[in-house]
Amino acid sequence: MPVDTSYAGRVYPPNAPYEVGREKLREFAEAVAATHPAYTDPEAARALGHPDVVAPPTFAVVVAQRAEAQLLSDPAAGIDFSRVVHADERFTHHRPIHAGDRLVTVLHVDAITERAGLTMVTTRAEIAAEGGAPVATVVSTLAVRGEGS
Amino acid sequence: MAAPTLDALTVGQEVARRTFTVDRARLVRYAGASGDVNPIHWNERIATSVGLPGVIAHGMWTMGSAVGVVVDWVGDPGAVLDYQVRFSRPVPVPDPGETAVEVVATVGALDAEAGTARIDLAVTVEGARVLGKAQAVVRLH
After folding, report:
1. Cβ-defined contact of A38 to B86 (cutoff 8 Å)
2. Angle, helices A22-31/B24-34, rounded to nearest 10 degrees
3. Domain with B20 in it: what CATH number?
4. How many other β-carbons are positioned within 10 Å of the β-carbon of residue B43?
5. In this structure, what are the phi and psi dihedrals at residue B137, rounded to the nearest 5 degrees?
6. What is the pLDDT of residues B54-101, one digit of tens each?
7. Which of A6, A45, A67, B83 is 20 to 30 A from B68, comparing alpha carbons?
8. Beta bridge partners of A113
9. Angle, helices B24-34/B59-66, rounded to nearest 10 degrees
10. Looking at the predicted structure, is the pLDDT value of residue A146 above 90?
């Protein structure tokens, strides 16, 4: 089934808050072999002016993909995950994410375009604090191979 | 090491380099930590069945690991304001064995008014670029 291009322009309602925990940040930092003490030591983070341990620069993907699942796991959207490769990713941090944050994400489907047998699906996750202050913007493009290619 | 300052940098200057390795256990760890459990990153049978040469690293693992040289150089993870990459080539991860990934960070652009530097990352495996347009914008003083 091809990707349903009519999903372009869709905006999903805010999802359930993601609560950022110290041990999750430690686990993620270790997985990407990141050793900066501000990821794991609250005192080191505070010395840099952060209220608690901070997230590595790409941690927001964990938060964003919960919102992206609304699109990717929707059978009607027609995105066959075995045919997907990740094309590009961009994080814009309006402020650092830190332990204790409760983050709410609004997913935007910015574009669905077809070119040379591929369907390019670009999503934008706008991550904000519960009060609405912007925290991070995560833009991701997936390339979906067509049937028989 | 003192934090770098904007006026001490010139475009084209190399600021950091690092080589790190990835094996299957590392990918399993990243899958768990990130929640991306796509089997092409740990199951040879499924990876080859969808036309890949074998198990490949998560692009997001490569992206997340490569930026470590920038964070350690600038001294504060919170100084990374923007970070983008294109995934230009998959990173195969053998079993047994491991794959070496080299990162070289150079100054791509300076913006004195904004107080930022764009750091460009050349990320290669066996000399071939695996990330394209890998750029991190950092705040400096």
Report:
1. no
2. 150
3. 3.10.129.10
4. 12
5. -100, 125
6. 999 999 999 999 999 999 999 999 999 999 999 999 999 999 999 999
7. A67
8. A120
9. 90
10. no
Is the Cβ of B73 closer than 8 Å to some Cβ of chain A?
Answer: no
| Number of domains within chain B | 1
Distance between the two ends of chain B, CA-based, in angstroms?
A: 15
Select from 3.90.25.10, 3.20.20.70, 3.10.129.10, 3.40.1190.20 the CATH code of A5-145: 3.10.129.10
Task: Tell me if chain B has a CB within 8 Å of the CB of A149.
Answer: no
DSSP state of B72: H
Q: Is A148 on the interface with B (CB under 8 A)?
A: no
Residue B1 inside a domain? The answer is no
* Sequence-ordered list of residues with C-beta below 8 angstroms from that of A62, at least 6 positions apart, any chain: A18, A24, A28, B34, B35
Domain containing B131 equals 6-139
* Model confidence band, residue A99 (pLDDT cutoffs 50, 70, 90): very high
Q: Can you tell me which residue has the tokens 């904004």? A: B114
Name every chain A residue with its beta carbon within 8 A of the beta carbon of B50. 82-83
For B72-96, letters b (16+ CB in 10 Å) and e give bbbbbbbbbbbbbbbbbbbbebeee
The ranges assigned to domains in chain A are 5-145
